[in-house]
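Appendix B, Record 12. Input sequence as logged:
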Amino acid sequence: MKKIYNILLSFVFAGCLLGSCDYLDIVPNETANEEDAFASEQAALNYLYSCYSFMPAYQNSHTFIGYAGDEIVSCFNGEPIKLYFQGGYTSGNIGNVDATYSNMYKGIRQCYLLKKNIASVPGLSDDKINDFANQADFLIALYNPSSKKRKDYLARACDILLEYKEESIICGIVRNIAREEESMNILTLKKLRNTEVDMFSTVYIGNKMTKIIKDKMVTPRGYRYDRK
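Logged structural output:
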């Protein structure tokens, strides 16, 4: 009898615990959301500034994304690149590289959210909408974009990008970079989606400013040269 009583008591206790957790599903009234970020021109400007905070600090070897690859050589013993180069990273000290990638993905997502919502800001002129959107419209490079086991990865990436970018965006594919067999192909994002690439290919995806100049894929950076 006592055993049955303890079992019933356990069920009652468990029910009380499960039933008392509803408050975790309630979002506090003062919590900021996506609409708040674009409620005014100043809020949108603050959101744009925060996008820049995700850019890697190239002067800091612990946050430089280049150090996450195996083609960078460092002369500083003990630096993250040397640990990575020697296979010295473990689950206990991989935080620097892991955090770099995590911040990059957050920054990319935030930029796309800005492009998606900037036109909804009340009273924002068309010129400022274009200015804000262009600042968040970055270039993308895809290394090792496909293999025998990952044939659909490029198409999947293009499907995601086509939600935010126009089909006519200029893209480029360079195969066997710096080798005798080096080749280049320029095409639109729409055509890129159905193009086969391999592990020797590097794919470049432009933005609204990217254009073709003398058979080259060029993205102006805003510099001006005054001829005298």
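The first strand starts at residue 140 and ends at 143.
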